[in-house]
Amino acid sequence: ERTVAVMHPVIDYKNTTGEPRYLVIIEKVQVDSNTGSLVSCHACKATADIYSFKKLNNGLFQLVSRTPKKVEPTGVSGRIMLDEKSIKNTMQPLGKEITGSVLKNGSFYHGIFVQWWDVLQLPENDFINLYGLGDAGMENGVYDEDSPLYYAYEGTFKVLSENTNTMYYPIMLTYKGEKPTEDYERIEHVNY
To answer: What is the model's pTM?
Structure first.
């Protein structure tokens, strides 16, 4: 196997003070040395280097921030799950001086569609941070909607930016629908 770097399209965004920034994602995938094909399995994922740049008056670009080494974003089938359109469309203030995105990702596991929230924080005075926020919903596609064993619920989030003096804004998750208990003994209606 060998590592191949794949540059994603540049994402332009504005920081918390409205200055233009440019996000560059370099995905590092594993490729079979003999066939040249992507090493892919459900549990396989890639790594990524993420950089934020600003454009200087002379037309050159200066590095503002980057991820630490060997960041492993959420991924499946040998690829990362960082969609450029989702990042751009969900860009918002996530802290006093932090812009970022809350991204919804998901995957099928044995007929069940599992979703989760990932957060991409783009501070200008620290490393870029990428972390899992929590559950974003689930749908049990093994059973028909009429079955007593069927369940589906959705998670939503809200960035609580009312107190603009905090370094990081809290993010509140809420759930609505039919959800199995932690021991999977029964299915309960949730609205919290």
So the answer is: 0.90
- As a 3-state breakdown, the chain gives helix, strand, coil percent values, each rounded to 5, of 5, 55, 40
Are 48 and 107 in contact by the 8 Å Cβ rule? The answer is no
Antiparallel, parallel or unpaired: β 98-109 and 129-140: unpaired
| Lookup: tokens for 102 | 């809350």
- Model confidence over 36-49: pLDDT tens digits? 999 888 778 889 99
pLDDT, tens digit, 9 for 90 and up, residues 124-134: 999 999 999 99
Per-residue three-class SS string for 81-146 = CCCHHHHHHCCEEEECCEEEEEEEEEEEECCEEEEEEEEEEEECCCCCEEEEEEEEEEEECCCCCC
